[in-house]
Amino acid sequence: MSLRYDAGEVITAMVTPFNKDLEVDYAQVEKLAAYLVDNGSDGILVAGTTGESPTLTHEEEWEVLSVVKKTVGNKAKIMIGAGSNSTKTAVETTKKVSKLGVDCILSVVPYYNKPSQAGMFEHFSQIAQSTDLPVFIYNIPGRCVVNMCPETMAKLAQKHQNIVGVKQSNANLDEVTEIASITPDGFTIYSGDDSLTLPMMSLGGHGVVSVASHVIGNDIKQMIRAFKNGDLKIAQQLQYKSYPVFKNLFTSPNPGPVKTVLANRGIINDYVRPPLVVLTDEQKKLLFKFVK
To answer: pTM for this structure?
Structure first.
């Protein structure tokens, strides 16, 4: 199937490194971005939830973007989170980042104010009309309370050529089947949950927007390639091997665990901004029992 837009098979939702004063550590941003691209990532998502976007200023997000772009811009696609539960804010942010050299936009379903399907359609229509860049819907009912239905995605993709896919963070695989069945040809489905990447790919998914790729990016890339090459047994074995990592990186609020592992490897610090807190020694001990 020819994709409307291919942002890569493994897109890492990159964490944002901080120093001990909880300011963004841009030297570590550069180090981490280079590390990710050398270890399985085809694309990098800047200012996603894993990047602690709720506690970043727009100016910090754009500076992180600038550093990532300078570091890996010719080696990986760069996606940026530009969503909001205010349509006006989402549109203004999308217009701004569209001028900053990103490759594509990730925009979350409006959270907290619980819009109807008609409200979601209007929200994303205005976003699509505000940019020429490819736009991916971020459907995550666990954080947004509401779920965008496959029919709404299909209507949006039919009306707006630049609404090109979805990051689907919904464990209901029946909905993945529906999305793949009724959206226009080339609509791209990314798993938003590492452990569901292989199941979603069996239903038409293209890849993953990943947290675990910070830690086992090459394994995830190999799993996706094996599946697409018809080596199902190898893909299954890699899924079984990776599953403890997928699950234990979420035993505490994300991105605390993955920052802990990266700090243990000497890549970045493990500092997080409140209301998140660093892992306790006991939590770290349990994490490293499964994530070696």
So the answer is: 0.97
**Domain 10-240, classified CATH 3.40.50.300, yes or no:** no
Mean per-residue pLDDT, 109-135:
98
- Predicted confidence band at 133 (pLDDT cuts at 50, 70, 90)? very high
138 is catalytic: yes
The domain ranges of the chain are 10-240
3-class secondary structure per residue, the chain: CCCCCCCCCEEEECCCCECCCCCECHHHHHHHHHHHHCCCCCEEEECCHHHCHHHCCHHHHHHHHHHHHHHHCCCCEEEEECCCCCHHHHHHHHHHHCCCCCCEEEEECCCCCCCCHHHHHHHHHHHHHCCCCCEEEEECHHHHCCCCCHHHHHHHHHHCCCEEEEEECCCCHHHHHHHHHHCCCCCEEEECCHHHHHHHHCCCCCEEEECCHHHHHHHHHHHHHHHHCCCHHHHHHHHHHHHHHHHHCCCCCCCHHHHHHHHHCCCCCCCCCCCCCCCCHHHHHHHHHHCC
| 95 in active site | no
Q: 138, 155, 221, 284: which one is catalytic?
A: 138
Q: Active-site residue among 69, 155, 167, 284?
A: 167
